[in-house]
From TrEMBL:
One of its GO terms (cellular component) is plasma membrane. Belongs to the cation diffusion facilitator (CDF) transporter (TC 2.A.4) family. This is Cation transporter. The keyword Disulfide bond does not apply. GO terms for molecular function: cadmium ion transmembrane transporter activity; ferrous iron transmembrane transporter activity; zinc efflux antiporter activity. The lineage of its organism: Bacteria, Pseudomonadati, Pseudomonadota, Alphaproteobacteria, Acetobacterales. Its main location: membrane. InterPro entries: Cation_efflux (IPR002524), Cation_efflux_CTD (IPR027470), Cation_efflux_CTD_sf (IPR036837), Cation_efflux_TM (IPR058533), Cation_efflux_TMD_sf (IPR027469), CDF_Transporter (IPR050291). Residues 12-202 form the Cation efflux protein transmembrane domain. It comes from Teichococcus coralli.
Length: 295
């Protein structure tokens, strides 16, 4: 089992445990804000299951029908997670409205808040682990899960503070107000997650900082060539695709041009990790005098 798959499976276990704790906190208190927190945890479970399925599918090797691999399955998981977040937010808004019309004081607030705080701490720790692993493994599914959990941590912390304020002050409308604010924060989180995932499905280029590093590396390693132009990049899960045209002197032998290409490819793979590189070699008459000039 790969590291990404192990983490995705761990997310399912953590999500189920946190859901149980938050549901218990709501059952003890009757707080609509804690109910909203628990409803989001149901989405966490569904999202963790989707991420696990996507990570397992994306790890499958290329085949006849998918010669470029299955890495984009992770983006579909992230889009689905974003959609589930939006559904959870709408459910929470409905519960908030009902509680606003019929407010009541939470029961056993100290016990319920202690349980909710424990669940929030578990989510925070797991979110931190997923962020570290997701960046290292360049896994959209793990990073999406980490962002979702981080959003849950922020809203849960606000809910704990707010329900505590309701118990201390007796201001009943604070409970549904906090639930509504939680829903709005979740809506923003879901929109941002879907935006980033759709970008991956639409083959967006790598971020500008990384593109500049790629350009500099090509310029440095292409000694003997004249220029590189029409540089294009994209991400597909943990794989980076790089392609460009490399202009060489017209009288250069094929073996020499091939050696330059090998040198560039080795350097790019050393920097980017899992990479698919396509280099089209052209004679100097094809130079555009733009793009990447060779040092």
């Amino acid at each position: 089992m790969s590291r990404a798959t192990t983490l995705a499976a761990g997310s399912v276990g953590v999500a189920v445990a946190v859901l149980g704790l938050k549901a218990l906190a709501w059952w003890l208190t009757g707080s609509v804000a804690l109910l909203a927190d628990a409803l989001e945890s149901i989405v966490n479970v569904a999202a963790a299951l989707a991420a696990l399925l996507a990570v397992r599918l994306s790890a499958a090797p290329p085949d006849a029908n998918h010669p470029y691999g299955h890495a984009k399955a992770e983006y579909f998981s992230a889009v689905l997670e974003g959609a589930l977040i939006v559904v959870a937010a709408l459910l929470i808004l409905n519960e908030s409205w009902q509680a606003w019309r019929n407010p009541h004081m939470p029961d056993l607030p100290t016990t319920g808040l202690a349980i909710s705080a424990l669940a929030t701490a578990a989510n925070g720790t797991w979110s931190w682990l997923l962020f570290r692993a997701g960046r290292r493994l360049r896994s959209p599914a793990l990073l999406a899960d980490a962002r979702h959990l981080l959003s849950d941590v922020v809203t849960s912390a606000g809910v704990v503070v707010g329900v505590g304020a309701v118990a201390l002050t007796g201001i009943l409308w604070l409970d549904p107000l906090l639930a509504a604010l939680t829903a709005l924060n979740i809506l923003f989180s879901g929109w941002r997650l879907m935006r980033e995932s759709v970008g991956g499905l639409m083959d967006e280029a790598v971020e500008p900082q990384l593109l500049n590093r790629i350009r500099a590396l090509v310029s440095q390693e292409a000694a003997g060539a004249i220029e590189a132009h029409d540089l294009r990049t994209r991400h597909s899960g943990s794989t980076t695709f790089v392609e460009f045209h490399l202009v060489v002197p017209g009288d250069m032998r094929v073996a020499e041009a091939h050696e330059i290409c090998d040198r560039i490819e080795a350097a790019l793979k050393g920097m980017l990790g899992t990479t698919v590189i396509t280099i089209h070699v052209e004679p100097e008459m094809k130079a555009k005098h733009q793009g990447v000039l060779v040092l």
